[in-house]
Amino acid sequence: DAGVIQSPRHEVTEMGQEVTLRCKPISGHNSLFWYRQTMMRGLELLIYFNNNVPIDDSGMPEDRFSAKMPNASFSTLKIQPSEPRDSAVYFCASSGQGLILSGNTIYFGEGSWLTVV
Amino acid sequence: GNSVTQMEGPVTLSEEAFLTINCTYTATGYPSLFWYVQYPGEGLQLLLKATKADDKGSNKGFEATYRKETTSFHLEKGSVQVSDSAVYFCALGFGNEKLTFGTGTRLTIIP
To answer: pLDDT-derived band of residue B95, with 50, 70 and 90 as boundaries?
Structure first.
């Protein structure tokens, strides 16, 4: 398996533009997570889905952020309009059958490095 | 709520030194515990994990033991290499829920 695939790997955009980040989870995994990493706040969970349904979106910073998972093999994280403070690395991750007590592993993509100028 | 507290970084060691990165957690119940590693410019990779008390996770010379009595999961390696330079994250997880991560510890190994 190719692992979790994210695109784009790098994006530079102007303030006010719409940004769409894409993620393809590992085939067969039924949980998908979007994380944001910054120097100031470290790694933050934005939202996670189980069986394509959003379970916890309490980490989504504000209404400018939205995430969808239309099917088991694809998810998007959209920022509209983007602001300079949204500059960060956005990671998508997936796991199989959720995090059961036997310790199922979350697998991370390589991240989308976003710069908003 | 659940939380993970990690040793503040950055940590700088000479090659072949002994490494310990402390991690303690607060949780209701008995989580699974994880160490993830992030190399420069890359995503997080699972380094090791433990699912119950007294379990020892190990990988690439790294070890961590799940200590329920001290709610700890300290990461150790007997002899570090330059290639171990990275950011290390301790994390806990329950059932069908998200992982809770620590803030990360940056490790630099000097030749």
So the answer is: low
